[in-house]
Design brief:
Blueprint (H helix, E strand, L loop, with lengths): L4 E5 L5 H17 L10 H4 L4 E8 L2 E10 L4 E8 L8 H15 L4 E7 L3 H9 L3 E3 L11 E7 L1
Parallel strand pairs: 4-5
Antiparallel strand pairs: 1-2, 2-3, 3-4, 5-7, 6-7
């Protein structure tokens, strides 16, 4: 990719954002049973306690991420990068955006749940300062989940 990556706040209902979210859901459902998929719906991503961003290259949305404000911590949600755009640094920029937004919101901790075999995601999160932790919020230990956190 030769164009610069830009990160923009947007609505999950933006057609390009919706396409990314839909692709993410399809990917997760191809890997995990539905009862182990914790992806948020478009409506869930539109509540006031959630902020949503897209990463764009040449104006086209190529990745997305959300920050859910849980009061005493933030949760990184709906992280997805179009497979055709991977390797351009989009994931790192999206994670950095969420960390900055959590800091600006005064959230002391950032947490996430991800798939057990999403090894590229694990590496990205660890490079961004996340470490393994136990289940949090409404999550329970499960065969397909990895939980991580990092101080903000």
């Amino acid at each position: 990719m030769t164009s610069a990556v830009t990160i923009e706040r947007c609505s999950p209902r933006d057609p390009e954002a919706t396409a990314l979210i839909t692709a993410s859901h399809a990917f997760l459902l191809s890997k995990y049973p539905p009862e182990f998929s914790f992806a948020l719906s478009i409506d869930d991503l539109c509540v006031p306690s959630i902020r949503f961003w897209t990463a764009r290259i040449g104006g086209a949305a190529r990745g997305c991420v959300a920050l859910a404000d849980k009061g005493d911590y933030g949760e990184l949600k709906s992280m997805y990068v179009d497979p055709a755009a991977r390797g351009a640094g989009i994931g790192a920029l999206l994670v950095s955006t969420v960390i900055g937004a959590a800091r600006d919101a005064g959230l002391p901790m950032l947490r996430l749940e991800t798939g057990d075999d999403l090894y590229d995601a694990h590496r990205l999160y660890r490079r961004s300062g996340f470490v393994d932790c136990g289940p949090f919020g409404d999550y329970v230990e499960g065969p397909h989940s990895v939980f991580m956190e990092r101080p903000v």
